[in-house]
């Protein structure tokens, strides 16, 4: 099965850092679909599931939580990170590899300690410093990364702070 390569790294990540539990955990969902079958991984504060179905393989496992991964520190688009102090609250990955065509959509939910306009201004400035061309509509930034992936980062009010979504589409 072509997507089976995802299983070992996810299992290793699942086992890391199980001795400590952060106060806020990230919900993670990964769905990969190909000619040979499917891989589905979900994880949150109470652990998760790993399901693999295809070509003679049927696996359904409980896995420990992945919530202590520091996604906020590791997230970037062409070297531009989220506004300082932002926290990733959700991650959803959907990948398809069928009939010779592949695509993936990665969605991150996040919170930011700044108001939407402030966070969007800061990120727009950081993209400009890196030479990444973006368009801006209100508090939404959109562009194409160096690797050809399209991205959109949206900020909305959450009290005096912001919450948002980063969407990355790979073709």
How are the secondary structure elements laid out?
Blueprint: H1 7-15, E1 27-34, E2 37-44, E3 47-54, E4 57-63, H2 71-74, E5 87-98, E6 101-112, H3 116-130, E7 134-137, E8 140-144, E9 150-158, E10 161-170
Parallel strand pairs: 1-5
Antiparallel strand pairs: 1-2, 2-3, 3-4, 5-6, 6-10, 7-8, 8-9, 9-10
Defining traits:
10-stranded mixed sheet, 3 helices, 171 residues, single chain, alpha+beta
Strand order of the largest sheet: 4-3-2-1-5-6-10-9-8-7
Query: Structural class of the secondary elements?
Result: alpha+beta
Helical region count? Answer: 3
Beta content comes to over 45%
Order of helices and strands: HEEEEHEEHEEEE
For the terminal residues, how far apart are their CA atoms? 21 Å
Query: What is the average of the pLDDT values?
Result: 75
Low-confidence stretches: 1-23
User: What composes the largest sheet?
Assistant: 10 strands, mixed
Helix percentage: 10-25%
- How many β strands by DSSP? 10
Shape: globular
Q: Radius of gyration in whole Å, from Cα?
A: 17 Å
Describe the structure.
The relative contact order is 0.16. The chain has a 10-stranded mixed beta sheet with strand order 4-3-2-1-5-6-10-9-8-7, with helices on one face. The chain is built from 3 helices and 10 strands; from the N terminus they run H-E-E-E-E-H-E-E-H-E-E-E-E. A hairpin with a 2-residue loop joins strand 1 (27-34) and strand 2. With 171 residues, the chain is an alpha+beta fold. The chain has helices at residues 7-15, 71-74, 116-130; strands at 27-34, 37-44, 47-54, 57-63, 87-98, 101-112, 134-137, 140-144, 150-158, 161-170.
